[in-house]
Design brief:
The complex is a heterodimer of chains A (about 400) and B (about 140). Helix content of chain A is about 5%, strand content about 55%. Chain A is mainly β and about 400 residues long. Chain A has one domain: Porin, CATH 2.40.160. In chain A, the strands form 2 sheets. Chain A has a 16-stranded antiparallel beta barrel with strand order 2-3-4-5-6-7-8-10-11-14-15-18-19-20-21-22. Chain A has a 5-stranded antiparallel β-sheet with strand order 9-12-13-16-17. Chain B has a single domain, classed as D-Maltodextrin-Binding Protein, domain 2 (3-Layer(aba) Sandwich). Helix content of chain B is about 45%, strand content about 20%. The radius of gyration of chain B is 16 Å and the shape is globular. Chain B starts with a helix and ends with a strand. The chains are: A mainly beta (about 400), B alpha/beta (about 140). At the A-B interface, strand 2, strand 3, strand 4 and strand 5 of A face helix 4 of B.
């Protein structure tokens, strides 16, 4: 079935250019409605270890995602919009269409606005645009901080934002976002997949999130520095196979995400860096016994990209991911994932690009942290080193 | 002598760069009350972080699709290249936090659009005829 879906995605990819050209904006009650969409298709091949739930050791095209949105400004201050999104990344997504974001936005002043609905969460450099790899140099964002399999853990919340941009005159400007809401629950994401594959399926997941993001656009053109902080909760019920399918109750409260980041765009050079800390104590209760574990992780990356010409950009990044307390400390490959990546991005037209990327990875992280390496996809065991070749093309309008 | 030549070349380069800014005219629809705009405001308007000027007038940017005036405007007032700005707008569009601004091919089209569109603000070559739109001084 998945092969049929992948074939359909390939056909859609072939026809995407003509579909995009046929796209148009229209008016409703004299209000212009903007329509935008994107389609991304990838191929991944690895020498060792299947990656991101794909059969990458044999070469896999199961790397497709599609999104489309519509938005309209109903007045000078009020606009509404929504985006639908679906993906099929190996065993994840399975082409289930989901509301990616959908909300109303009222901007009282440039320094104060409110949004309500399902909203992409402002966290770090790329959280809210992590699905849109066509906006980046890279075929895959640094997975130490933006793991594709766990996107839904932070991607959006259903609730409200306050936001604004304050002029600091000669010192630049400060953009801010504060938010509160309900966390997304994604039964087709890596968290559900990893647990189900380990024989301990989720039967429920819920949580709340509240946080802030502040980014200073300095007076030095192209330099932006930011910080994000999130306080979230997670309540999960799991059937524990090793305990005869007894009910395991997990509470990850409080879970704090802290991110510090910087981005510098100067001429043909683009540099960025981010550090992310996930403070995550977990209390579990099973068969009347309660205990606590440390599920904390941290990671960082540094990227350098250079625009060679209008149609070519090249770049490299180093991504690092660390597990605070691996289940088997003697296994040194399970406490980290290091990834050195080189990329060439070809901009064929203003709405079509192709990226060719090579990852040189060491380590695979702990079984609880997932981050793209799953024992279920590697039944013969995980190897410490993985070289991964990725080609990804995107159409966007 | 060699140093003098370098100094002359440097002076020429500075002179030609500032000539770019002087060769651009900022225009706005007659609904815009302000008669001048700061460089900081212009940057905010074209990065969609500002939707009103200091007098409270609502504004919406209109851009040229390309060309020397467009490149000079981005360099002098926005601080992003054309491709970086397009990527920036797309990041707003695909998160719902903004919309794609109007882009037009020629100075004449920009003038015509600004003339008929409430709150529109754009830029054209200084030599362009702009009889029916407001020309804003950049402070």
């Amino acid at each position: 079935m998945n092969k049929i879906k992948t074939a359909l995605a390939a056909v859609a990819t072939l026809f995407a250019p003509s579909l995009l050209k046929a796209q148009f904006d229209f008016t409703v009650d004299d209000k212009p409605v903007q329509i935008h969409s994107f389609l991304q298709q990838g191929f991944a091949y690895s020498n060792e270890n299947n990656f991101l739930t794909m059969d990458t050791s044999s070469g896999s095209f199961a790397m497709t995602d599609v999104g489309a949105n519509a938005s309209v400004a109903l007045t000078d201050k009020f606009h509404v919009g929504a985006q639908v999104y679906m993906r099929n990344i190996g065993e994840l997504g399975d082409y289930h269409v989901q509301l990616d974001w959908g909300y109303g936005d009222y901007k009282f002043k440039d320094w104060f606005g409110v949004r309500g609905g399902k909203i992409k969460t402002a966290l770090g450099l790329f959280n809210d645009i992590q699905d849109n790899e066509f906006l980046q140099t890279w075929a895959l964002l640094p997975q130490g901080v933006y793991p594709l399999d766990l996107r839904s853990n932070t991607i959006a919340h259903t609730g409200a934002d306050v936001y604004g941009n304050v002029s600091l005159h000669r010192a630049g400007s400060l953009g801010y976002t504060g938010y509160w809401g309900i966390r997304a629950n994604d039964p087709y994401g890596g968290l559900y997949y990893g647990n189900a594959a380990a024989g301990d399926p989720f039967i429920s997941f819920s949580g709340k999130t509240a946080g802030m993001d502040a980014r200073w656009h300095s007076s030095l053109d192209g330099l932006m520095i930011g910080v994000s902080w999130v306080d979230q909760t997670q309540d999960s019920h799991i059937l524990d196979e090793s305990a005869g399918d007894a009910l395991l109750i997990l509470r990850n409260t409080p879970q704090h995400l802290t991110s510090v980041y910087a981005d510098y765009l100067r001429g043909k050079w683009h540099l960025s860096t981010e550090y992310r800390r996930n403070y995550n104590p977990e209390t579990y209760t099973i068969l009347g016994t309660t205990a606590q574990t440390n599920q904390g992780t941290n990671g960082w990356f540094g990227t350098v990209a250079y625009r060679v010409s209008k149609w070519l950009e090249v770049g490299t990044y180093n991504s690092r991911f660390y597990v605070d307390a691996p289940q088997n400390p003697a296994n040194t490959a399970s406490n980290h994932i290091f990834d050195q990546t080189v990329t060439a991005r070809f901009d064929i037209t203003s709405w079509w690009n192709v990226k060719v990327e090579e990852h040189f990875m060491n380590g695979y992280g702990d079984t609880f942290s997932y981050h793209s390496f799953y024992l279920a996809d590697n039944p013969n065991g995980l190897k410490p080193n993985t070289d991964l070749f990725v080609v990804r093309t995107a159409f966007y309008k | 002598m060699k140093h003098l030549i370098y100094l002359l070349l440097a002076a020429l380069a500075v002179g030609s760069a500032s000539a770019w800014a002087a060769d651009i005219k900022i225009i706005a629809n007659s609904s815009v009350g302000a008669s001048s705009v700061s460089a900081e405001e212009l940057k905010g308007v074209f990065l969609s972080t500002k939707s009103s000027l200091s007098d409270g007038s609502h504004v919406e940017p209109v851009l040229l699709k390309g060309g020397a005036v467009h490149e000079a405007f981005l360099k002098d007032y926005v601080g992003k290249s054309d491709s970086a700005l397009e990527t920036y707008y797309r990041s707003l569009v695909f998160t719902g936090k903004g919309s794609m601004p109007k882009t037009l091919a020629t100075d004449a089209e920009v003038v015509a659009y600004v003339e008929k569109t409430k709150g529109a603000i754009g830029y054209v070559a200084a030599a362009t005829t702009t009889a029916d739109v407001k020309v804003l001084e950049v402070k």
